[in-house]
Structure formats: C-alpha cells, structure tokens
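Tip: read the tokens left to right.
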C-alpha cells in the first residue's frame, strides 16, 4: 500500500484491496431511496480479511512516529482501533455531542441535511501529538475536516487521514485539500 496525497484518487489495487472490494456489499436505496450504501459488515465478519485490511491501512504509517489514532464514531472506531494497536499508537475517540464524560472541545460542521458537531476530550492529546485521523468512509469530507480541526485545536498535528472507502463522486477530498489523504478502496 502506498501513501498518497490528496491529488491521488486511491491506493494501488492490492490483493487485500481486491478481497475487501469483493466482500463489501452494495445495498440499493439504503438508508433512503436513491442511495447506494456500501456495507462493510461482511468484511468485518471475515476475521482474516478484517485484520489484513486494517494492517494494510496502517502499514504506510509504521515508522512515522504517529502517537495517536483519532477515529470518528462509530464505524471509524472499528477501523481505527486495530490500526492504533498495529502501529503502537494511542487511540482517541471523537464522538457525537454529550457522549464523552469529561470536559470536551466541540467542533460544528455542516451535513447535506443540516448541522451537527463532534466532540473530543479536551485533554485527550498532548501538545505536538502526531495524529492519524481514521474513518471508515470518506464521503463529503465534512466529518473528517471537523475531526482535523478538533485535533489541531487540542494541540495535535494531523499527519494524515486514512479511510477504508472513498466515495469519489461526493468529492470529500476537497474539504481536505492540504492534507495527506488515502483510502484503500474508491467507488
């Protein structure tokens, strides 16, 4: 797996990427009419493939002194936690408002259907922490961009953003233009 910048559309196809693509189920009209949903649960149910995918996503960041993986609720946790373990980094969750028990930083962002916000414990990252932002899907980029802003407000440095799947038609990279962005698969 090669590390890519924002100008690249996706990682080179590998045997792991091909197996992941074959395992991901496409569900028409979910969660609403007109949406083609990419369901990663069959991939997650295959223990060997799940491990291979998270190992491959994290491999490009071994030796880059990543101190923390910051992942977004909830499927980002499923991808981010194994990557954190594989690269010997701490894991920090970003959650919806009101879900973290201690003092938080909050970051608003706009969705196609309204506004929302994300929260991070205010003491989750030491100053200068080198952070890998992880989520399962890069769609419009709003969630990832808000997560990057939270990391920086907390004193961290966003080294890169990595995703299992990128939905290219939604142009999420536009919100992450100055970031290193990679995805195992693109649709």
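Filled-in amino acids:
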């Amino acid at each position: 797996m090669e590390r890519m910048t924002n100008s690249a559309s996706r990682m080179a196809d590998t045997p792991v990427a091909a197996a992941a693509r074959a395992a991901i189920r496409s569900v028409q009209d979910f969660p609403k009419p007109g949406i083609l949903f990419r369901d990663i649960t069959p991939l997650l149910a295959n223990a060997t493939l799940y491990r291979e995918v998270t190992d491959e996503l994290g491999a490009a960041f071994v030796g880059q002194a990543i101190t923390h993986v910051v992942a977004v609720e909830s499927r980002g946790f499923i991808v981010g936690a194994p990557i954190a373990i594989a690269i010997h980094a701490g894991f920090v969750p970003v959650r919806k408002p009101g879900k973290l028990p201690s003092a938080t930083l909050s970051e608003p962002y706009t969705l196609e259907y309204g506004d929302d916000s994300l929260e991070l414990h205010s003491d989750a990252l030491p100053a200068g922490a080198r952070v890998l932002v992880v989520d399962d899907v890069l769609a419009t980029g709003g969630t990832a961009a808000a997560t990057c802003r939270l990391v920086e407000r907390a004193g961290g440095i966003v080294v890169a953003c990595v995703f299992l799947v990128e939905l290219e038609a939604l142009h999420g990279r536009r919100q992450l233009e100055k970031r290193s962005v990679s995805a195992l698969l693109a649709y």
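Residues 47-59 form the longest helix (13 residues). The beta strands are 25-28, 36-39, 68-72, 90-94, 104-111, 114-121, 130-138, 157-166, 181-186.
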